[in-house]
Amino acid sequence: MSTKEIPYKIYLNENEMPEYWYNVRADMKNKPAPLLNPGTHKPMTAEELEGVFCSELVKQELDDTNRRIPIPKEIRDFYKMYRPSPLVRAYCLEKKLDTPAKIYYKFEGNNTSGSHKLNSAIAQAYYAKEQGLKGVTTETGAGQWGTALSMACAYLGLDCKVFMVKCSYEQKPFRREVMRTYGADVTPSPSDKTEVGRKMLAEFPGTTGSLGCAISEAVEAAVTQKGYRYVLGSVLSQVLLHQSIIGMECKTALDKYGIKPDIIIGCAGGGSNLGGLISPFMGEKLRGEQDYRIIAVEPASCPSLTRGVFAYDFCDTGKVCPLAKMYTLGSSFIPSANHAGGLRYHGMSSVLSQLYHDGYMEAMTVEQTAVFKAAEDFARIEGILPAPESSHAIKAAIDEALKCKETGEEKTILFGLTGTGYFDMLAYQSFNDGKMADYIPSDADLKKGFDGIPKFPGNEF
Ligand SMILES: *Cc1c(COP(=O)(O)O)cnc(C)c1O
Q: 399: part of which helix (H) or strand (E)?
């Protein structure tokens, strides 16, 4: 089929939307390592996990054999309000770059929360509701996850308690107000509402908080209140499962036009959007049916895949969560204060970590000034104001397209445009004012984080 026949936007009909999530773990020979009980170092049982998470989500978390998990009709109906999301052929960007490469992006910013996170938020809220719970607790850093969860909970009539990293709570008042508008109870973290929070405040008065600490507070709030469970917006295997909707829609749309991507690129924080985008493609790769180059892009200031170690580590600062085997910088790692581009979690999804470890995907880092330059170029050329997180993928896609210009190769590049950046204008301001700087942690900086990784037999790194 000639290039001319491919529209700017490839939409699917509602009846072409996936009716199940694809569980990539089913096709992995080396399964991701199980979550461990931090006390006994034994695999977490379903029963133990059910103290913290909803039962059906525990089932999904532990399921590494079923390929297809049906999406309940209620969730599919909610998806229809903002999905299928468009797959865009970046004709304008290709022209501007004067590249023979064909560039596509899957745009997940077409909903009020502004990102892909709503795909998992509605699933998690739905299962909490099904279980007859009163509400859910969670943490949010930049605020996208908290916003998505607030929307999902409002829709289903669930109570939603969000612990928001204090510096974001103060820097992003509009995010906070969106959440409150959707009915969420938003608390700056560390707070005096939890044991962990009070301890943190006593030890580090004036701290502006961290994602790891907010997680500990949210978990504590869930396990100490009747009728509540904790939900998490990334990292967990269940979240990657829900996000597979991105890749499934994408694959259906590409297949319609007989398009096969050569390179698939996504930004990687905890790994959920990338894991979701690549799922069906990775499945083909794992089964030996097709080959794709798959690239995870992370900030040079928070390089968990590229410079982290592959080991069991704590998922949170308070060390209340199960241990996960992943590429990690250590749970005490906090990116430098001038880091503005999101993707600041210290670890990476166990699924992606295992796939990366086994050589099924690549990882690279980019510095934030280059990321914001790519974001600005993209906004001016393609019109969408991208989230800084998404712009990591934009930067890598542009660089790959420019390589094609040099070699004359007509590669097809697909990347995930995970969201919009309207609430990140302070970061854009710093870039526009020429005040943004790059900071790459030294090996000595990283060592401090590695020193906090738990040591026990079998966890050598
Ligand atoms: C949260 C977020 C990310 C990073 O999270 P992952 O779990 O790695 O996908 C990327 N882009 C946007 C817009 C986000 O909100």
A: helix 388-407
